[in-house]
Amino acid sequence: MGQPAVFVRLAGCVPPFCAWCDTPQALHAGGEAKAMSPQVVLEAVQEYVATLAATLADTLADTLVVVTGGEPFRQWPTGLEVLAEILADAGLSIQYETSGKAGIPAGCRGVVVCSPKPADAPYGGCSGAYDLAPESVARADAFKFVVDCGGNGVLADSCDMALAPVLDFIRTHAISPRKVWLMPRGARKDEQLARMQAVWESCVRHGFNFAPRLHILTFDDRKGI
To answer: Less crowded by CB within 10 Å, the N or C end of the chain?
Structure first.
């Protein structure tokens, strides 16, 4: 968290879409999205890495590249697998951010952060049941859950109702609490601040990690950060 990184955002997601998605421009191919070959993406990443290295007076040979979306693994067979190989071969570290809705491929090089989406997300909810294929659960290195509780002075005790589907998912799949991060829902600074304390206290109660949205807390809803 807070580590310098180059983001590669792939367009296109798996419906039904989350009503509270904060990057709707990435839900569909086209629009702001631009078709790029894996080699062209690598060259763009290396250009950013060179700029960052010059700023920090460091080689940054193992710079982190975060591959996100949309749902990035939708494109695994059509270019992402190749991109992952050439990024790794170039000495770059890779982290994937996925919902798991397109599956998680076996043997992908890098760290897989899976953020499962609740069943009621298409209707604006954030407390429905989670459904993820067992093989995808086994291939994820960490799990991030967006939690909608704590606003309007609600205490952590009341968050347990919102957390019930998360706790059920973790128990069902025997996931270690150390692999679980809770993130307050909110695409604006005021929304994050309203929920942070209760979510933090819930993390302490259950032994989870806390994941604030640092760019929102710093820049609010400004785009392009």
So the answer is: N
